[in-house]
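We examine the record.

___
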Amino acid sequence: MCITYFWIFLFFLVSHSLFSFLPLWSSLGEEWLKKDGCGNLRSRMIMKDFKEIRHRIEYVFLMGILLWVWMVSLKTALLAADILGFFVFSVLRIRRLVVMDNLKQAFPEKSQKELLGIARRTYQNFAKMIFEYMRFPIMKREDVLSLFSVKGIEHIDWALKQGKGGVLIAGHYGNWELMGAYLAQLGYPTYFLVGEQHNKLVDHMMNHYRIIMGIRIIHMGVAVRGVIKALRHNEFVALLSDQNGGPEGVFVDFFGRPASTPQGPAIFALKTGAPVLFSYPVRFPHGKQRIYCECLHFDHLHGVSPENVHEVTQAYTRLLEKAIRAHPDHWFWMHRRWKFSP
């Protein structure tokens, strides 16, 4: 078993090192082309080849890890994820400074030791989420259903009875992918709004795995039309709305600091009258997970206005913060959430 873990770590370490150097090789190649007097067309063609090679190497390494994850039990995969998360946090230290800075800002009352513990477990939980996601192709319906229980399922049923679909808001919290798969396997018509990954091979694989689980896909390029169409067909659209919304986002309070947040979920709900649901999954030590679902009511709001968008966004952001405070190691602290200021 130790030898197996060694190979997993070797895959990760070599791939990380290789991926770190490939952009450098690409930059050096571009500089060489400029100095050699080559035209821009030739430079772009060679840079495109560098990018394609990098993406193929990434995909090959990913497939190597996938094969191992498929071969072992879920229990073994999660144990390996614990070790891998510890290794990435303690040795590779990828985005560790960002994580620690975010945690210090969010929990100024906690000691350094407490924050380090939360950070380490964050990496471990994220590794578990990835390994569980990788197992989608080999998971049967009963496997998915056996992993979860739900508190608040009646809110989802109520939303369906309204006939306007539902805006299902979640965060990068726990295993959000598996939560969506669970709802789809229960028979709830569930769409994911997804952006395109830089690596198209990986992007295709990720969406294929979602489709295997019964999740339907709306691509970001047709977001407005796709989301509104799904809601009008009384279907759920799951939106992750906890990352930086950029200068065009709406600023709401998040851990006592203004955070730019995407306006999309609020606009879709206000425009269509669809119920707004907030859901998040919690992982327990024995391997089971529980989904908590709440319904937010905005019957008093009419039309899309800056004030209404702010109220809706602040309401579900407040619920997200509450969930994070209860289980801080479940959230994706690697992201620069407070990148923009009002």
Summary: The CA atoms of residues 278 and 316 lie 7 Å apart. The mean pLDDT is 89. The two ends are 52 Å apart (CA to CA).
